[in-house]
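In response to the reviewer comment on reproducibility (Comment 2.3), we provide here a single inverse folding case reported in full, input and output, so that an independent group could reproduce the run without further information from us. The structure tokens appear first.
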């Protein structure tokens, strides 16, 4: 009997293993000669440029460390809990890029996460979002990439430990977490909402940064847009869990995504800064409106907006009292000396270019990470609000100074419990700043 049970289990295991191999195996697709750039129309190339901008392709496929690298030539380092991953070269170089990929191979990579050679791609490449794109958009993107300058550049090898380095295991990940298929419009919503959902959930892959991940590195679908940590910054929630006291309305979202600054929420900094400045500022305005329209619904803006007037009045009142009369609070004096000259608002509403910190996401998050990052890095004139800069205080403020300012702002600008271990957290964030900002105060 035992032998029979063991034999049955072995047979079931063998059948299951063969079934998995059948599921996991994809044949290579034959290489082709690089398509002649003149074979693509100017209209298709421009459509592809828009697709590339809305998917931020250059952001993750251009090296930023080691002095930087050519656009789209890959070798961008992504630090993950599993080890460092380096992005691929997507210029049309036949040897180190995708110049010998047919459109069929490119479509398969975008929709199924499988390379031309039949190798499963690591989901740091967000094919779980790109699968929602239409064949036409992927075709247009292919045309755009194949007409870029070919760059002969190899990437560094990934630093994934065994057995995670075995690509066949990615098929198991897909079996658990990946559902291929293009976006299906939701009939309960209008065309603008569906366009915004298509872009946000597909090409723009907003959830890749703004949705927390589980121990396997997959997005937690039950916590979509709940916020996550990205490149040592916090990508805040995009849904009703966003803690800021004023609502991210459709107009606020549009201003932020199109121009990099929202009147009631301040500027885009850190990893988010290139999204409006390098990419969404160059695409059709109606697409940015669609994304804003979609997320205004996701965060229930229409229901939350009624509280905005009271929150705005409270923020303006606190800003005025900071600089009126003597103040015996030593933390307030430090804030006045370092910050209040630029962040002071006495008008009924914030002055654009002087973000009121009482309304900013950074003070309302569970951790002071983003506040510290902005203090340490500052904002250049190319980030945040165009032409308006904030100096780095990397050298000017100690960890203790930053902790005092964070504590003061948290208790005077929010209605939330105080942050803890502020000095320790300031030191931890400082360690992530590998290059001292060139605009650092002395």
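Designed residues, in position order:
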């Amino acid at each position: 009997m035992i032998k029979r049970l063991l034999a049955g289990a072995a047979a079931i295991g063998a059948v299951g293993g063969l079934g998995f191999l059948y599921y996991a195996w994809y044949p290579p697709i034959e290489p082709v000669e690089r398509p002649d750039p003149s074979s693509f129309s100017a209209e298709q190339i421009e459509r592809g440029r828009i697709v590339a901008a809305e998917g931020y392709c250059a952001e993750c496929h251009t090296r930023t460390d080691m002095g930087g690298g050519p656009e789209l030539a890959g070798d961008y380092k992504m630090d993950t809990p599993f080890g460092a991953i380096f992005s691929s070269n997507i210029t049309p170089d036949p040897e180190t890029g995708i110049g010998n990929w047919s459109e069929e191979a490119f479509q398969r990579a975008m929709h199924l996460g499988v390379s031309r050679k039949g190798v499963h791609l690591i989901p740091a490449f967000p094919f779980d979002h790109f699968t929602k794109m239409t064949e036409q958009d992927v075709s247009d993107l292919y045309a755009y990439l194949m007409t870029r300058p070919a760059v002969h550049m190899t990437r560094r090898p990934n630093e994934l430990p065994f057995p995670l380095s075995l690509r066949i295991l990615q098929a198991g990940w897909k079996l658990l977490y990946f559902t291929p298929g293009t976006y299906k419009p939701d009939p309960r919503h209008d065309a603008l909402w569906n366009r915004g959902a298509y872009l946000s959930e597909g090409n723009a892959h907003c959830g890749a940064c703004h949705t927390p991940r589980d121990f396997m590195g997959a997005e937690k679908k039950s916590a979509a847009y709940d916020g996550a940590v990205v490149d040592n910054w916090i990508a805040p929630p995009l849904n009703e869990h966003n803690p800021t006291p004023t609502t991210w309305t459709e107009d606020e979202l549009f201003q932020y995504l199109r121009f990099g600054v929202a009147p009631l929420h301040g500027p885009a900094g850190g990893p988010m800064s290139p999204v409006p400045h390098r990419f969404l500022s160059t695409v059709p305005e109606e697409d940015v409106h669609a994304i804003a329209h979609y997320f205004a619904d996701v965060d229930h803006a229409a229901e939350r907006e009624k509280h905005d007037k009271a929150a705005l009045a409270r923020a303006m009142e606190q800003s005025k009292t900071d600089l009126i009369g003597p103040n015996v609070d030593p933390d307030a004096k430090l804030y006045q000396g370092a910050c209040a000259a630029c962040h002071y608002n006495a008008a009924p509403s914030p002055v654009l270019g002087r973000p009121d910190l009482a309304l900013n996401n950074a003070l309302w998050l569970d951790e002071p990470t983003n506040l510290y990052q902005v203090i340490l890095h500052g904002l250049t004139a190319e980030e945040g609000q165009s032409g308006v800069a904030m100096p780095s205080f990397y050298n000017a403020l100690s960890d203790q100074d930053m902790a005092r300012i964070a504590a003061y702002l948290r208790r005077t600008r929010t209605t939330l419990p105080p942050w803890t271990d502020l000095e320790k957290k300031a030191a931890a964030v400082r360690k992530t700043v590998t290059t001292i900002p060139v605009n650092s105060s002395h």
